[in-house]
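User: I'm writing a short methods note and want a consistent example. For Lipoprotein, I'll paste the sequence; you return only the structure tokens, no commentary, since I'll be parsing the reply automatically.
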Amino acid sequence: MNRLVNGFVLVAGIAFSGMAAASSLPAVDGKWQCVPEQEKNHEQSWVTYDFKPDGTMSSQEWVRYEENDQTQLEFNLFIDYRYVAKDDDYMLKPVKLSREIITDPSNANPFDYATRRDLTGYRIFFKPVFQGKNEALFDMWYHIDPDTHFKMNCKRQLTLASLK
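Assistant:
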């Protein structure tokens, strides 16, 4: 279970690196609700990304692992990032991380000190592939493993201001 959780935390922690000054990404500004393109067995999850024009982004991720129709681990992960545009890709770097364990009957403790340290050291790149103004596929990968991509199907969360 720990290996599964640690593997997921490494994939789920959407962390990007900023070497250039933060810049606004008007194409992705706003709040996006995303789900993995391919669901994994025994796992349910979703993520919201809230991109702000000041070069910051906050995310909330919800994850639940189940086995034999029983929840083995359920948690929320909250990460604040700095983001920058780099060519056609974007990078995010985590600046703050917190978590909320909802259910952990096996005491897997997926967020011990070492895991949090490792998670905040990761950088993730992504390239949004827009499918209209309010839908996109976020093609994502880690800086340490650029050939392994994971994809998130995302929809922009419309607000009254965005409807005007």
